[in-house]
Amino acid sequence: MDAFFIESKDPLFGIIIFFVLVFVVTFFSYWFNKYKKKEDYKHLDNFLKQFHSLPSQNELKVLITKGELSEKSWFLLANSYAKSGNYEKCIEIYAELLKVGDKANYRETLFLLGKTYFKAGFLERARVIFLEILKTNPRTPQALNYLILVYEQMRNYKEAIEVLEPLEELKKDVLLESTYLNILLILNSLKLGTDEKVDALLKIYKSSNLLAYLIFEYLFRVNPKVAWKNFDASKSELLIDILWSVEKKDLDFNIIMQNGFLKELYSAKGYIKEATSSSVFELNILINLEQRADATLGFEYICNSCKIVFPFAFHRCSNCHTIGTSRAELSLVKDYHKDFSEENNSFQ
């Protein structure tokens, strides 16, 4: 026994005991964590099996009521449904969360439900929800902005303009939005004639110098002569797709000859031969081709704000909802119109 106590007091013995304890603790920690992870994965697999096929509304109700997932997780799941275009399931999740979810998240959930209704095209339901939010929380800019979008889609431009007032009271800059909605109100008016609309649009443009594309798109379509008379040469590149589609008989060559970009544009079009080259690659190619190939300009439209590309011109981006951020991107495409014209002439 004495020999044992002497050995136990030896420093080497203490070191051995220390490493044995470290080994035992590490061993049990490793296998406990492995077991815990296995159980977690089993629980997750069991939960995800419920989503191999889309759950019904009753199944969603049961799952949300059980509380197996946090509300944050349900928000992420709803968002993934929305991104995949399954708005029905997204709406069901938000609607159920409003019933059994945390009341602290009630307003946020209601807002997300309204956004989803808007994206899904249920405009009246979206309108009711945003008005409900504003009834109790009138100083909610997000709800006000979406209510404007709803009214715009419903073509209730007067109501949309009225919504700008509380935004203005919240010190938000509404000049661009106000100008845009007033232009839409004029363009869609059944009481105003074409000449009255032209005069009203020119008055807005001269006072604000905003939304040239929206205004001149209409002017060149209904009255090219007035459009050229009030043409702003600094907007030539912005309006390139509109100018490209103007027929030769509607051109004002006096203005064109005073503008280098317009000379290049209509030389590329083949209407004149005043430019021998252009700094714009596509125009330069067409100028040098001199109508020897069936090529013309093609256009895609990029939102300067969110960088999403669209095949058609737009005034308000359908993705980020900004106004006047469209930019035309040029490309060379086959001129099918020229082929069609030549075929028609061959039959005459």
From TrEMBL:
<keyword id="KW-1133">Transmembrane helix</keyword>
<keyword id="KW-0472">Membrane</keyword>
<dbReference type="InterPro" id="IPR019734">
    <property type="entry name" value="TPR_rpt"/>
</dbReference>
<keyword id="KW-0802">TPR repeat</keyword>
<dbReference type="InterPro" id="IPR011990">
    <property type="entry name" value="TPR-like_helical_dom_sf"/>
</dbReference>
<protein>
    <submittedName>
        <fullName>TPR repeat</fullName>
    </submittedName>
</protein>
<feature type="repeat" description="TPR">
    <location>
        <begin position="107"/>
        <end position="140"/>
    </location>
</feature>
<feature type="repeat" description="TPR">
    <location>
        <begin position="71"/>
        <end position="104"/>
    </location>
</feature>
<dbReference type="Pfam" id="PF13181">
    <property type="entry name" value="TPR_8"/>
</dbReference>
<keyword id="KW-0812">Transmembrane</keyword>
<feature type="transmembrane region" description="Helical">
    <location>
        <begin position="12"/>
        <end position="32"/>
    </location>
</feature>
